[in-house]
Amino acid sequence: MRARGGRGAAGQWFRVAREFVTAVRRIVGMPDYEAHVAHLRACHPEMAVPTEREYFEKFLERKTAGGGARCC
User: Fold this and answer.
1) Which of 30, 37, 64 shows the shortest CA–CA distance to 52?
2) 15, 30, 36, 40: which could join 25 in a potential S-S bond, CB 3.0 to 4.6 Å?
3) Under a CB-based contact definition with an 8 Å cutoff, are residues 55 and 31 in contact?
4) Torsion 66-48-52-15 (CA) sign
5) Distance (Å, whole) CA 65 – CA 4
6) Mapping DSSP to helix (H, G, I), strand (E, B) and coil, where does residue 62 land?
7) Which residues, 6+ apart, have CB-to-CB distance to 50 below 8 Å?
8) How sure is the predictor about 71, in pLDDT bands with cuts at 50, 70 and 90?
9) How far apart are CA 30 and CA 23, in angstroms?
């Protein structure tokens, strides 16, 4: 039996925090790296998965260059 406030509560708190961060990123237009990785693995398995830093750098590059086409 777990004690109150143990790992279960911490795990739940982290899950809620992660969902909150994802929602805020969507509101301000930041992409979701984890969703992108899942998309690449499901739809484009032949493509290399970029690091999180590479992904965000490319996102900012496209955003400041006036946009860009999406793959899907």
Assistant:
1) 37
2) 30
3) yes
4) positive
5) 51
6) helix
7) 58
8) low
9) 10
Helix spans in 1-72 (H): 7-28, 33-43, 52-64
Compute CA distances 8 → 2, 17, 36, whole Å: 8, 14, 28
Q: Which residues have CB under 8 Å from 22's CB, separation 6+?
A: 32
Assess whether pLDDT exceeds 70 at residue 5: no
Residue type, 8: G
| pTM > 0.70: yes or no | no
Chain center to CA of 30: 9
Q: Fill in the DSSP letter of residue 6.
A: S
